[in-house]
Amino acid sequence: METKKYSSYAQIDRELEIFKIEKELSYQKLVFGVKKTKESFTPQNIVSDLIGSYSSVIPYGAIVSTAAPFILNKAIPFIKNWFAKRKRGV
């Protein structure tokens, strides 16, 4: 890396401001990437991707891959509530 030579403090301040903005931009890209990755690791997405991968092998694979997300969106809250009630002894 070549050493830069500055002729004034204004140039240094400008370069530091550019680095600061680049750092913030990189940080925001990282935060966005983590958020998107976190969103993709839901049970619905995992099962949908798994079923989608094997839809050609599964009988009626297209129907199953279409219905699975809908069923999971309804089944997971039901199962969570069932376990919560069971823990409380209701």
Structure description:
This protein is 79% helix and 0% strand. With 90 residues, the protein is mostly helical. The longest helix has 32 residues, at 9-40. The model has no long low-confidence stretch (mean pLDDT 80). The chain has helices spanning 9-40, 43-53, 61-88.
Present the secondary structure layout.
Blueprint: H1 9-40, H2 43-53, H3 61-88
Helix pairs in contact: 2-3
For the structure shown, list the relevant keywords.
0% strand; 79% helix; 90 residues; DUF6327; elongated; mainly alpha
Question: Briefly, what is this?
Answer:
By secondary structure, this protein is an all-alpha fold. It has helices spanning 9-40, 43-53, 61-88. The longest helix has 32 residues, at 9-40.
Over all CA atoms, what is the radius of gyration? 25 Å
- Proportion of residues in β-strands: under 5%
Question: Could you tell me the mean pLDDT?
Answer: 80
Number of helical stretches of at least 4 residues: 3
**Count of DSSP E strands?**
0
Q: Termini, distance in Å?
A: 68 Å
Shape: elongated
Order of helix and strand elements from N to C terminus: HHH
Contiguous low-pLDDT stretches (5 residues minimum) are none
Structural class: mainly alpha
Helix content: over 70%
Major sheet summary line: none
